[in-house]
Amino acid sequence: MEVVKEFGLVEWIKRKLQASLSAGASPAASSPARPATSGKSAQSASTASAGECDDEGMLLIIMLLGTICTDEVVAKMALEGGLLLLLIEILNGIC
């Protein structure tokens, strides 16, 4: 919990999710389908502008959120910070 507060991770995650939402819910929603690769392709790097994440980056951010929310205090901070609503909005835009 101290690390989350010290580095402002909840706010950082919120900014990343908001950037993704304002970019059209997800870079994947606006970019053409691309083959699965183990590394970043030039196409995936070009679809994400400053502040946005590509699909892999967004997945890592969501996994980080899930991990840090195993702490009850951090989960409450995330909920009060509106992260759950942002995730729902993103999912509604891509599903």
Description:
- This protein is mostly helical and 95 residues long.
- The chain has one domain.
- It has 7 helices and no strands.
- The chain has helices at 2-7, 9-22, 27-30, 42-47, 55-68, 72-80, 83-94.
- α2 packs parallel to α7.
Features of the shown structure:
single chain, 95 residues, mainly alpha, 0% strand, globular
In a nutshell, what does this entry contain?
It contains 7 helices and no strands. It has 95 residues and is an all-alpha fold. Residues 25-46 have low confidence and may be disordered.
How would you summarize the topology of this molecule?
Blueprint: H1 2-7, H2 9-22, H3 27-30, H4 42-47, H5 55-68, H6 72-80, H7 83-94
Helix pairs in contact: 2-5, 2-7
Low-confidence stretches are: 25-46
Query: What is the helix content?
Result: 55-70%
Our measurement of the CA-to-CA distance between the termini, rounded to an integer number of angstroms, reads: 32 Å
Mean pLDDT: 78
